[in-house]
Structure formats: structure tokens, C-alpha cells
Amino acid sequence: MIKPILQLYPTIPAKSEEERAELRPLGRNSERYQEVVHGVTGLVKEAERLGFWGASCIEHHFHSEGYEVGPSPSVLNANWAGVTDRIRIGSLGYTMSAQNPFRVAEETAMIDHLTGGRSFVGFSRGYQSRWTNVLGQHYGVRATLSPAGMDDAEREAMSTERLAEETSIDQVNREVFEEHIDLVLKAWTEDSFNYRSERWEVPFPYDEGIDWGMRDPSSRLGAPGEIGEDGRLHKVSVVPAPYTRPHPPVFVASAASLETVEYCGGRGFIPAYFSGSGRAGKFGGVYAERAREAGFDFALGQNQALVRWMQVGDSEQDARQAIADYDAEMYKNLYQPLTPHMAYNPDDPVQSVIDCGLWTHGTADEIRDQFVAQWEELPAEYAVLIFHYAQMPYDSVVRNLEVFMEHVKPALDELTTYATADSANA
User: Fold this and answer.
1) Which residue among 223, 279, 291, 346 is buried most deeply as judged by most CB within 10 Å?
2) From CA 224, how far away is CA 217, in angstroms rounded?
3) φ/ψ bin of 317: left (φ > 0), alpha (ψ from -120 to 50), beta (otherwise)
4) Domain residues of the chain, as ranges?
């Protein structure tokens, strides 16, 4: 059975681009943000009522336009934990190339406790330069679109100098991303540890240790190994440990570059494919093969996630209108400028959205058939459904969730016959 996840992209609503311009910067409009921040909590409760496996949010910063205002996944997650009983709570995800790994380890462990173990954690690399470059500057990180994930035509369209620069940026971003995830895992699973790299010394300074005033109590009461024979602190203990042992499930957001897929397979992480089914389907087998080499036994699609937007209507035209009203502005002004491979035709914005391969739309039966066709290529264990609430009204989001659970999920369950761990709603 598939495990559906509601992914919320908190969007401050405007009747039109003109109104958004009149009220600029709408991202700082406190009155309208009130609707968003409390409404997403209601939608999470609706998802739990309907039997969704999980609910998640994003990490994006500085969205002055009012798009995707989600600067703190942990705050939303903690709030959702307090108003739900069964659904898993998490994020897709923390941008680890620009995050402090120790803070992420601490906050996600606390959320795991607040939920009684019904949490998950998602990680991403950071492709939006406005904020990734600012928050990641002390790690030497800039945003990346990962040339390794581009097709030949996209790379050939770049000059040799630009491609070399982007490849270097991408390499640093990936190195920091992977190192920070390693540190989160150490913090989750080891009672105490030390660590040194080009970017980190733990403790600091590493060689001489810290002259710690509590050395006597810490040597008797703290984690073994924190205090060395010289009486100085030489290891740290990150607290609390997660409620789930060894740690909550880990997702990694990906546009399906082969390098990321292989990285996830080798770690047993769950790749969440923000890409059309053709590319995701191609890499699904690569993931399973790499996972087997690392000692995991996953069937095709198992431990993988497909990410989709959806708009249901009483007719195909109604669904197209919903895309025009609730999604096209973000596609035009956010997704396409930041990911140029997503084509945009100003004469037919809705068709541009549909053609990118990430949207399903139509009547309930049409949406079911579109999902089935994609799951026949890759029978993913997880289905991540994204909605731009509150640009998209509350009742419209709920209707889409109901259609998915009643009309789509039963058909996808028939395609995901491999054995999976019990869900939080079982």
C-alpha cells in the first residue's frame, strides 16, 4: 500500500498579480499570514482524518513576494505534533548545505519525542540563491541546480566557463550537504563523539579540547568520553536522542540526478523525486541496485517517493481553471525562472504547467488514470502531494485530498504489492 504525504507550500494569497504588487511585500503581510499559518494546521488535521501517512512542509526564506513562506519547518512541525494523534509529521526538507547540523539534529529529535515517534525528516541541497547563498556563506556554499542532473542539451547551452563554475559550486554544495547529514546521523546515534574536517572542529578547538568548568560533574554524570584524561572536554553529546531508534525515516528531495539517487541508495534514504515519471522511472532501478549493493533489499519503487501537484475538477476544463487560479502564477514567477529547464509559454500558461510533468489534473477518474500510468513506470511507496495553500482555498485542498484517498489510492495500492513497514495510521 502506498503512503501518501501532504506537502504544504504556505503561500500568502492574492486575487491577482496586480494585487500582489499593490500589497508588496506580501510576504510580510501579517494579517494574511495569519490565515496561512493557522490554515495549514487545519489541513494537517484533515489529512489525518482521511488516513494520510504523513504531513510535511518546506524550508524557504526571504520570499518577499509571498510565495512559499516556510522559513522554519521545526516550528510548524512542533505545532502539528500537538494537534494530531496518528499522522507522521516531518519536512521536505531542511536545506542541509545552509543549516547548522547540530541544531537540526536537536530540533528533529525533539519533534520525534513530541510525536511519540511518528515523525520523519527530509533533507534538501538548496537551489534558490537569494537565501541559500546568504545562509550558507559561512560554509562556503552557494545554491546549485546540479549540472550533473542536467541533460546534454542543457549542459551544451552553457559556456565552458559557466559549466566549470557551476560544477565547482555544485561540488562544494554537495560536500557540505553530505557532511552535515553525516553530522546529524552522528548526533542522533552516538552518545558522544568528536569530529574534524576542513569546515568543522568538534569540540573547538579540537586538539587541545575545551577548558570546561563542569569537568568533574561531566566526567561522572555526562556521556562517557566527553572528558579526557587531561581533564579537558574532548567530545560532545548532542541531546536529546530521537525517540525512534536509531532515528526517524530520512527523505532526500531530488530532481533525480543520478548522483543523488545513488547517494540515497547507498544510505537507505528515501529519494523524493521532484521530476517527471520518465526520469524518476529510469532512476528507480538504479536506486534499487545501489541499495542492494549496500545491503538493503528493496523492490522496484519501494523506499522511494514521487512528488506531484494535483488539481481535480468536475471537468478537465474546471481542473485547468484551478491550475490557472492556484498554480500558474507560482510556476511563471518562481519555478520557471529558478529552474530554466521547465519551459513556459506565455500564450498558454496552464499548458506549460501541465507539460512539465509534475501536475495531474482533470476529473477524479482522469487523475486516477494519470497517477496509475506514472506508478506503472515506478510503483513508488510514497506519494507526496503538494498544494499552494492559501493561494488555493482550504476547501479546494480538502476536496483534492478526498479524491486522492477515495479514487486514486486504491488503484495505486494494487501496483505497490511489496511488503512495507506498518504505517503510522495502521
Assistant:
1) 291
2) 12
3) alpha
4) 3-191+240-413, 192-236
- φ, ψ dihedrals at 114, nearest 5°: -60, -30
By CB neighbour count within 10 A (0-12 exposed, 13-18 middle, 19+ buried), where does 124 fall? buried
Residue 302 has which C-alpha cell? 519501494
Alpha helices in 12-137 (DSSP H): 17-22, 30-50, 73-81, 101-114, 129-135
Residue 225, number of CB atoms within 10 A of its CB: 17
User: How many angstroms separate the CA atoms of 77 and 61, rounded?
Assistant: 17
What's the pLDDT tens digit per position in 19-59?
Answer: 999 999 999 999 999 999 999 999 999 999 999 999 999 99
Strand ranges (E), 296-368: 305-312, 359-362
Cα separation, 263 vs 259, whole angstroms: 6
Tell me the C-alpha distance between 77 and 114, whole Å. Answer: 9
Closest CA to 59 of 90, 84, 16: 90
Q: Residue 320: name the closest of 358, 356, 362 by CA.
A: 362
Which amino acid is present at 140? G
Judge whether residue 423 has pLDDT over 50.
no
Q: How far is CA 333 from CA 17, 24, 70, 178, 328, in A?
A: 10, 15, 17, 30, 8
Residues 6+ apart with CB under 8 A from 29: 12, 23, 66
Identity (one letter) of the amino acid at 330? M
Asked if 39 contacts 394 with a C-beta cutoff of 8 angstroms, the reply is: yes
Rg (CA), the chain: 22
Three-state secondary structure call for residue 115: coil
Q: What is the rounded CA–CA span in Å between residue 415 and residue 308?
A: 17
Distances (CA, A) of 277 to 70, 139, 311, 315, 385: 27, 34, 18, 24, 14
Distance CA 256, CA 149 (A): 7
Cβ distance 57 to 70 under 8 Å?
Answer: yes
pLDDT tens per residue, range 326-375: 999 999 999 999 988 889 999 999 999 999 999 999 999 999 999 999 99
H helices, E strands: number in the chain: 17, 12
Query: Letter for the amino acid at 304?
Result: Q
